[in-house]
Design brief:
The chain has 4 helices and 7 strands; from the N terminus they run βββββββαααα. It has about 150 residues and is α+β, with helices and mostly antiparallel strands.
Length: about 150
């Protein structure tokens, strides 16, 4: 499962895994407690693969930030999202040194750290934008172009 199947739903804690589509929305399974919920079009839903973090030069996809956190932590969980503001900001500055301090708030950093830890707890460690199927398709196309 890639980040394109992981959702953040405003007003609901934690992250959700997209499980099925319905006529008026979709069904999502909570990564916190495993309960399934119906989500309709009135909910404000963000797909993690579409989120980016502001830096002074560009916007960095959330998947890349998670990859940097994974490298820093050797695939283990990061600091707690309940750490102090200074600890969170220092940690995030180590992970993404040029993040825009005026546009990335402490609440954003808390959410990113919490999401990262939740994904690691649920055994998700591949944060690359492309899924394995897409990579295979590209490799197949590249192979057929050489012929």
């Amino acid at each position: 499962m890639g980040l394109d199947k992981v959702l953040a739903i405003s007003g609901k804690p934690g992250l959700y895994e997209l499980t099925a589509q319905t006529r008026g929305g979709f069904v999502a399974k909570s990564m916190l407690d495993g309960k399934k919920i119906a989500v309709n079009m009135r909910h404000n839903v963000s797909v993690l693969s579409e989120i980016a973090i502001y830096t002074y030069t560009e916007e960095v996809p959330l998947g890349e930030v998670f990859e940097k956190m994974k490298e820093k932590e050797n695939g283990e969980k990061a600091i707690s999202h309940k750490s102090s503001k200074a600890e969170l900001e220092n940690y995030f500055a180590e992970v993404l040194p040029d993040y825009d301090v005026d546009r990335v708030y402490t609440s954003d950093i808390k959410k990113i750290v919490q999401w990262y830890n939740l994904l690691i707890e649920n055994g998700m460690t591949d944060f690359s934008k492309e899924s394995k199927e897409e990579k295979k398709a590209e490799e197949t196309e590249a192979g057929s172009e050489k012929e």
